[in-house]
Write a structure and sequence with these properties.
Layout: H1 14-41, H2 47-55, E1 60-65, E2 70-73, H3 75-81, H4 85-88, H5 103-114, E3 119-126, E4 132-143, E5 149-158
Length: 167
C-alpha cells in the first residue's frame, strides 16, 4: 500500500516569485528613469529628487521645460497613455486633457506652476484611444545651481481603479 505523499506544486510559489520579479523590474525601471533624467539635469539633480523617483509610486514621468513643453517621458508614459515618446515630445501635457477634465483643477494646476510651486492633485485625462483615466499628478519644479527654474518633473499615477472614479 502506497502512502499518500503531499505533492507540492511549483505553481504554489509562483505568486511569491512573481511579486519579487515585479519588484525587481520596478527597481530596474526606476534606476533607468533616474539615469535618463540625470542627463537633462546635469548639475541640478538633487538627492531629494532622486529619492522621489525611487520612492514615489508612479506609472509615468514627464519632464517639461519652463514653457511646459515636454522634453522627455519615460517608458511608462506610453504604457499609461498609449502615446509614444516621439508623439509627446514638444507638446504640452495639456494634450491629454479633454471635455471631462475639471476646469477648476486645470486652473489650480496652472496657477501653482505659474508661481513655480509644487502641484499635487488628480485630474481626468484621455488616453490615445479616447478612454478616460484618473491621473494623480505631483509636479515638482527643478532648479539649476543658480536657483533658476530649469524644468518641471511630473510623477503620474493612474488611479482609474479608485472606487470614486465613475466616468
Amino acid at each position: 500500500m502506497k502512502k499518500n505523499k503531499k505533492i507540492i506544486s511549483p505553481l504554489s510559489s509562483f505568486n511569491y516569485h512573481l511579486e519579487n520579479y515585479n519588484r525587481l523590474v520596478k527597481g530596474f525601471r526606476r534606476k533607468k528613469d533616474a539615469s535618463e533624467i540625470e542627463k537633462y539635469f546635469k548639475n541640478c539633480f538633487s538627492s531629494e529628487l532622486e529619492s522621489k523617483i525611487y520612492n514615489y509610486d508612479y506609472d509615468a514621468l514627464i519632464l517639461s521645460d519652463k514653457a511646459h513643453r515636454i522634453v522627455w517621458v519615460n517608458d511608462g508614459f506610453k504604457d499609461m497613455t498609449g502615446f509614444t515618446k516621439t508623439f509627446a515630445v514638444g507638446k504640452k501635457p495639456s494634450f491629454l486633457q479633454g471635455e471631462k477634465t475639471s476646469f477648476a483643477v486645470k486652473t489650480q494646476l496652472n496657477n501653482e506652476l505659474a508661481l513655480n510651486h509644487t502641484f499635487s492633485g488628480s485630474i481626468v485625462n484621455y488616453k490615445r484611444n479616447g478612454e478616460l483615466y484618473l491621473c494623480h499628478i505631483t509636479i515638482l519644479p527643478v532648479y539649476n545651481l543658480d536657483e533658476k527654474l530649469k524644468y518641471f518633473l511630473a510623477l503620474e499615477k493612474d488611479e482609474s481603479n479608485r472606487a470614486d472614479f465613475n466616468y
